[in-house]
Design brief:
alpha/beta, 8-stranded mixed β-sheet, 6-stranded parallel β-sheet, 22 helices, 14 strands, binds adenosine-5'-triphosphate, hydrolase, RNA_helicase_DEAD_Q_motif, helicase, ATP-binding, nucleus
Length: about 575
């Protein structure tokens, strides 16, 4: 066994620093030969450089390479070594860069998979998994980071992880994430970052929401997150009509209706030409046509936001194909961010369907649920303001701590209803679709769909008032035979969220187009009353008869008086 063989045996699994132990290598005849093949040279070079990432085999192979027959001078060998080193260094840098990029991408993919983040669009920015990382990467104001911490947000939610970096990069986005998953902060934080400080330029960001209550809630969240930053936000209430207010604020939160009214005044009461960010919350709702939607109003607002550099962001818990198509056509290099499956309910909600037979069965069922004990606050959804009033009268008569909110009330009444429910003064709030979207009442434990929702989308939003921000919640949906044709779509939402549903509901035939269209209209239902519909009809008939009779006797009396006068 010669010196080389001995070296080979002992050197298995070790790395040899040729530079440091050059004289030893020389003695053992281990220095590389100039005539070795290209690949062999590369291996030798990598070993010589004591590269950490090299495999043991390669190290083992190195002496073979050096086992040349040619004799060299020490200087010549050194030159070769240096040349090899330079070449190898480049390759190594390239290789390590590649493997670093690959590792980084794997990490990013892992973060996205773990948080069920799906991105569509060119070059999605890297997700940021902590608020500190946002500060480090984008220079988010430390005061905002402080505010986030004092509110109690310890880490970003999945939509915040991906949508905040996107908006920080000034990307136009379409974002869909489940109810209660923190979409509001996802768009407010980047806006605050871009606007930086108060400027007397007029509104630089506009946020639209379908209801005044939601607009006010977003405004309040903005105040909380931007405290001490100096930015000024304004929420348009009915009384705001003064143009001079404009320069005082940086951010405007409004409903489309109110804004369009102000834009259409002559001269317009508001100027939106400075708007840099336009955020549409509940975008699928605002894109709806007709009486319940805001599509026309939205078009007018777009026209008014006529700055060249306006960026748009759409957020909602539910997805509509029309919105996606519009965004693809009209937004610049749009990035679509979806969390989880599209149009799915939050998985922290325990969902239940309850067959109640008839309309009167609903009243019995709701009384029964409450009598068995519920943990307030509780929200009860009905399909119309008339029914909200009717149910309210029934439950208040039972002595329950209940209130009602609907669009026929004054703004003050509505504000009080929300305030009392938020503060815990009211335990049960009866509401219409008005409260269905976006409202964030902390800790709603139970949502009762007294009237069956007329779409899966409406269902997802209604039940999404509970189980927010990772909390658990419960939703009970009453149904009668007349609701059976819409059962299938709700049952599917439930199954997708992991809730048990009887098979027959899933096997039901999909209603045809005509029925689906009809389903969009509010179905006619019997009055909500302890007195049966039969008795109500009988009572109404009797009332009619009495009033007719009264009319007759009044006529007779008049004639009698006339006769007496003459
Ligand atoms: N990072 C966070 N950590 C903890 N809680 C958060 C975080 N971000 C937001 N929240 C809280 O989560 C709740 C829901 O947030 P938000 O109202 O923005 O939900 P949303 O996704 O807009 O829901 P919806 O679709 O119903 O409008 C709020 O109470 C909010 O304060």
């Amino acid at each position: 066994m010669d010196g080389f063989d001995l070296f080979r045996k002992l050197g298995v699994g070790t790395k040899f620093d040729f530079k440091r132990f050059k004289s030893d290598a020389n003695v053992l005849n281990l220095l590389p030969a100039a005539s070795v093949s290209k690949s062999a040279t590369k291996k030798a070079r990598l070993d010589a450089d004591n590269e950490q990432q090299e495999s043991d085999n390669e190290v083992q192979e190195a002496p073979d390479v050096n086992h040349g027959t040619e004799k060299h001078t020490e200087e010549g060998d050194l030159t070769v070594l240096q040349g090899l080193k330079k070449k190898g260094e480049k390759q190594r840098t390239k290789k390590s860069k590649q493997s670093f990029a690959q590792m980084k991408q794997e990490k990013i993919n892992h973060i996205r998979n773990k948080n069920r983040i799906h991105c569509f669009g060119q070059d999605p920015p890297n997700p940021c998994t902590s608020f500190e990382q946002l500060a480090a990467t984008y220079g988010l104001n430390p005061q905002i980071i402080k505010n986030i911490a004092s509110i109690g947000y310890t880490q970003p939610t999945p939509i915040q992880i991906q949508a905040i970096p996107a908006m920080m990069d000034r990307r136009e986005i379409l974002a869909c994430a489940p109810t209660g998953s923190g979409k509001t902060a996802a768009f407010l934080l980047p806006i605050m970052h871009h606007l930086k400080e108060h400027k007397k330029k007029g509104y630089r960001a506009l946020i639209l929401a379908p209801t005044r209550e939601l607009a006010k809630q977003i405004y309040r969240e903005f105040l909380r997150l931007s405290e001490g930053v100096g930015l000024k936000a304004h929420y348009i209430s009915k009384s705001t009509t003064e143009k001079r207010l404009e320069k005082k604020y940086d951010v405007l939160v409004s409903t489309p209706n109110r804004l369009v009214y102000m834009l259409q005044e002559d001269p317009p009461l508001i100027n939106l030409s400075q708007v840099e960010w336009l955020v549409i919350d509940e975008s699928d709702k605002l894109f709806e046509d007709g009486k319940t939607g805001f599509r026309d109003q939205l078009a007018k607002v777009y026209q008014a936001c006529n700055s060249n550099n306006v960026k748009r962001a759409m957020f909602s818990a539910t997805f509509a194909v029309e919105v996606e198509e519009w965004c693809k056509l009209n937004l610049d290099n749009v990035l679509q961010v979806y969390i989880g499956a599209k149009n799915s309910a939050t998985t922290t909600i325990e969902q239940e369907l309850k067959f109640v037979g008839t309309e009167s069965g609903k009243l019995l069922a709701v009384r029964d649920i409450i009598a068995k004990g519920v943990q307030p606050p509780v929200l009860i959804f009905v399909q119309s303001k008339e029914r909200a009033r009717e149910l309210f009268h029934e439950l208040i008569y039972d002595g329950m701590n209940v209130d009602v909110i609907h669009s026929d009330q004054t703004q003050e009444q509505r504000d009080n209803a929300v305030k009392n429910f938020r503060s815990g003064k009211t335990w049960i709030l009866i509401c219409t679709e008005l409260m269905g979207r976006g409202m964030d009442f902390i800790g709603v434990n139970l949502v009762i769909n007294y009237d069956f929702p007329n779409s899966a989308i409406s269902y997802i939003h209604r039940i999404g008032r509970t189980g927010r921000a990772g909390r658990s919640g419960r939703a009970i949906t009453f149904f009668t035979e007349s609701d059976s044709m819409y059962l299938r779509s709700i049952a599917r939402v439930m199954v997708n969220a992991g809730c048990p549903v009887p098979n027959y509901m899933l096997d039901m035939k999909r209603p045809n187009k005509k029925i689906r269209r009809a389903a969009k209209r509010v179905p006619k239902r019997d009055r909500i009353s302890t007195v049966s519909q039969y008795d109500i009809d009988k009572l109404n008939k009797k009332r009619k008869y009495i009033s007719k009779d009264k009319g007759k006797s009044n006529k007779r009396a008049k004639l009698k008086r006339g006769a007496e006068k003459s």
